[in-house]
Structures are given as structure tokens and as C-alpha cells.
TrEMBL record:
Belongs to the SfsA family. This is Sugar fermentation stimulation protein homolog. One of its GO terms (molecular function) is DNA binding. It comes from Methanolobus halotolerans. It comes from the Archaea. NCBIfam families: sfsA (TIGR00230). The gene is sfsA. Gene3D superfamilies: 2.40.50.580, 3.40.1350.60. HAMAP family: SfsA (MF_00095). Residues 30-99 form the SfsA N-terminal OB domain.
Length: 252
């Protein structure tokens, strides 16, 4: 049995600019020796071979960071680093997909501040990186006497029109869901913001194939009253654009 769960009315805000993320170079992936490092041959604006690039995303990214695929890079700030470049985006079917999780905070803050989700419209206090239980969750939002615990996840994988998270087993992600369930049981509100960077996505689902434990906990979280809001974004001309709020698709 399949069902679509709409936590809010699906509304389209296609084309709304969120933030600019400028890049300095384009290149071709040569290898990914570990999850935090990619070897890239830079092709634009100049040619540079075998540059080490920092990957700020712990996922597998197998359909993005494979040899021969195009990527966008940003020159790293001066400092004590082994790499001079940061990976920003990769090419999927001619579209750029953001693969740098260091921007998730700013994007999610934009969502909250611009009242994209009606459920969060009455917020008057935003506290980032607040500890709850044994985890540090991304936000604690306050609305008069109500507290809302928020965790943010970035999604770069899609199969057909379905965005999927995670793209690699995540014990940490499952633990965050368990903390949100605990928050609900203690009388708080709890929210998961899924930042989907695959603009072909029309719905979102937990990735049962990659991480069945996460998918099971995801279903338990929904049953406990944790609200899930998948938001679809595109990355065009150095700018993140908000496209739409997606439904959650569950198989039962």
C-alpha cells in the first residue's frame, strides 16, 4: 500500500531567490579517494590538473562525484588547510546540484525567516545549534509558550521523480529522529526540514534500500507527530532558488 502524506498544502514558490553562492572554477572529477576529498582537473577559467578539493558532504554522492562528471568549485579562504578548493555543485542531467552542506544553515534560516512554511509563521525566537538529549539539533524555535525543535537534512539523491534520503547509512540521522520523537513525547513540537536539491523531484521518501533502520525510525517519527517538510531548490546562475514544498511519499 502506498500513500502520500501532505503535512501542509503543497504550494509553489518557483523562482524565489534564496542566496547567492558564487563559484570560481569548473572542473572534471578524476577520483574521490575518501568521503571528504575529491581530485579534480580544473577546466575553466584556466587549466589545472589534479587539484585536491574538499567535499563538505559525508554522503556517497555516487551519481554526482564519479570520474568524468562536471563540478563547480569555490576557492577556499586562506588558512591552515590541505586543500585550496571547496566543492560546491555537481552536474546531474545538465542541472547543477548543490553538494555542500555548509550552506544548509543559511538556506534553512531563509525558509524560517521568509515564512515559507505556515506551521512556522508565528516564530519570534530562533536559537541555532541547541542541545536536546544526547544530540545537538539545528534549531530551537520559540512561539510564545510553544517550543519547536528542528533538524535539517540535505537531500541530493533522486530516483525518477522521488527524492531520497539518506544516500548512505546514517546512525547520526536516525539518532536525530529519535530525539525529535522524544521531544514530541515531552510535549514539544518537532520538525524535520529536508532541503532537496534535485529539481526534478516531485515527492520525498526515506531511503529504505540504503538505510532500512532510518526509514523505520522516519515512519515512527511521523506517527509520533513529527512534521516533515521537504523543500525543493535549484541552483542556477550562482543562485539558490526555492521551487516548491513536496509531499512525503511512504510505502506501507
Amino acid at each position: 500500500m502506498c500513500s502520500h502524506i501532505f503535512n501542509e498544502r503543497n504550494r509553489s514558490f518557483s523562482g524565489r531567490e534564496v542566496i547567492m553562492i558564487n563559484t570560481d572554477a569548473e572542473g572534471i572529477v578524476v577520483d574521490r579517494p575518501n568521503r571528504f576529498l575529491c581530485i579534480v582537473n580544473i577546466t575553466k577559467p584556466v587549466t589545472m590538473e589534479s587539484e585536491m578539493v574538499h567535499v563538505h558532504d559525508p554522503g556517497r554522492l555516487e551519481d554526482i562525484l564519479y570520474p568524468g562528471n562536471r563540478v563547480l568549485l569555490k576557492r577556499a579562504a586562506e588558512g591552515k588547510r590541505k586543500t585550496k578548493w571547496d566543492l560546491i555543485a555537481g552536474d546531474i542531467m545538465g542541472e547543477w546540484v548543490l553538494v555542500n552542506s555548509s550552506w544548509h544553515r543559511k538556506i534553512s534560516e531563509w525558509v524560517i525567516q521568509n515564512k515559507i512554511i505556515p506551521f512556522l509563521n508565528g516564530i519570534d525566537t530562533v536559537i541555532p545549534e541547541k542541545k536536546f538529549g544526547d544530540s545537538r539539533l539545528d534549531f530551537l524555535l520559540m512561539e510564545k509558550e510553544k517550543s519547536i525543535w528542528v533538524e535539517v537534512k540535505g537531500c541530493t539523491l533522486a530516483r525518477g521523480s522521488v527524492a531520497l534520503f539518506p544516500d548512505a547509512p546514517t546512525i547520526r540521522g536516525r539518532r536525530h529522529l529519535e530525539e525529535l520523537i522524544k521531544a514530541r513525547n515531552e510535549g514539544h513540537e518537532a520538525v524535520v526540514l529536508i532541503l532537496v536539491f534535485r529539481q526534478e523531484a516531485e515527492s520525498f521518501s526515506a531511503n529504505k534500500v540504503i538505510d532500512p533502520d532510518f526509514a523505520l525510525t522516519f515512519s515512527k517519527a511521523i506517527d509520533a507527530g513529527v512534521k516533515v517538510f521537504p523543500l525543493c531548490f535549484s541552483y542556477e546562475e550562482n543562485t539558490i532558488h526555492f521551487r516548491s514544498l513536496l509531499p512525503v511519499f511512504q510505502k506501507s
